[in-house]
């Protein structure tokens, strides 16, 4: 059975299943969201651990990628080991878009760990030292139009990231064709938001594991440094792709 047939079979046998169309396709989806299924594998970081020094230190990157992201993948696979085969055939994105269809006994584990893997697979691709760079092209225009200016956008996203209570993420998302700043608690992903799909364009991980070794409790310093490691080419690509499916 091909994956497409498997998905169709899920839809037919479960009746209530509504598999949303893939909203993020190909490379842009993040390694694990591009169609791979259970058992999931940890995506490659794609650059050396020290590539983001001095803004994000090598030890943080190594632990963050290998141990934290690694644990999300491992725990997702553990949860899915007990799941019906039809659920095991779902991609990360499909799992996150259909959390209400996941069996009760594994729903929380899938939400946390599929979300954790999806968010981090995106995050690794979003990071690249930019030497103070800014977006250009359509994304830059849309940011100016939505927020007034790049610096107003920076202030607003920084503020959301800094003030977010506890562990979570601050995001720039495309929602119904518009850019918006939003936050999610824990490892919830914007793609799972009920009623309105939100496609991540930029995301700041503000879990302490993302910054504590270098910045300790000084989250605002980490958020400020973060602007030096956003891969604006990748964000712009995401924006262009998201517009096509929004
Ligand atoms: Mn993290």
Q: How many H/I helical runs?
A: 10
Strand order in space, largest sheet? 2-1-3
Annotated CATH architecture of the largest domain:
Orthogonal Bundle
Straight-line distance between termini: 30 Å
Could you explain how this protein is built, in words?
It is a single chain. The protein is mainly α and 246 residues long. It folds into two domains: 3-46 and 55-126, Fe,Mn superoxide dismutase (SOD) domain (Helix Hairpins, Orthogonal Bundle), CATH 1.10.287; 137-245, Iron/manganese superoxide dismutase, C-terminal domain (minor pseudopilin epsh fold, 3-Layer(bab) Sandwich). Helix content is 48%, strand content 10%. The chain is built from ten helices and three strands. It has helices spanning 3-14, 58-80, 85-88, 92-97, 104-126, 137-147, 150-163, 212-215, 219-226, 232-245; strands at 168-175, 178-185, 198-205. The protein has a three-stranded antiparallel beta sheet. β1 and β2 (178-185) form a beta hairpin. α2 packs antiparallel against α5 and α6 crosses α10 (232-245). It is globular. The structure holds manganese (II) ion (MN). Manganese (II) ion binds next to α2.
